[in-house]
Design goal:
The chain is mainly alpha-helical. It has six helices and no strands. It has helices spanning about 5-25, 25-40, 45-55, 60-95, 100-120, 130-150. The longest helix has about 35 residues, at about 60-95.
Length: about 150
Amino acid sequence: MSSKLMILIVALSFILLMGVYFIANPSYEKSIRAKYYFEVGEYEEALVLAKESFALDVYNRMASTVMAQSVTSLKYVKYIEMGKEYAAEIDAIAEHEFISKGDKAKIRLMCEIMISSYVKLAPSVITDKELVEESAMYYKKFETLLEKVTKRT
């Protein structure tokens, strides 16, 4: 046999052994599933599986990474959900013919909460760009609204 063929056989055998190890090892099997759920946007499920995987093997870097990124992504998801709730509440207040000082203060407080919460978010290279963009959109919206409410007060 030629040496190139022998090297190819050894390399393929090594790759096959690594694949079997990843599939057979429960920690890596769970971390692969966690990575899948993370990629499809199921961050809570990804976090659960990554924690289980990490508990089985604390040296599993994939589990550690997916766990950290899922926590970050869930912060973005919660920020966006809070932004939607506050925006709906502010829209309901804006429908009134007269907006009281109490309602203006409530709007100002909601805007300040959204602005300060946004500053605490820390995107990474892996964070879904759509989450980052949508949260930035809510940040800008509430920043603009705060300026308008502050000017009118």
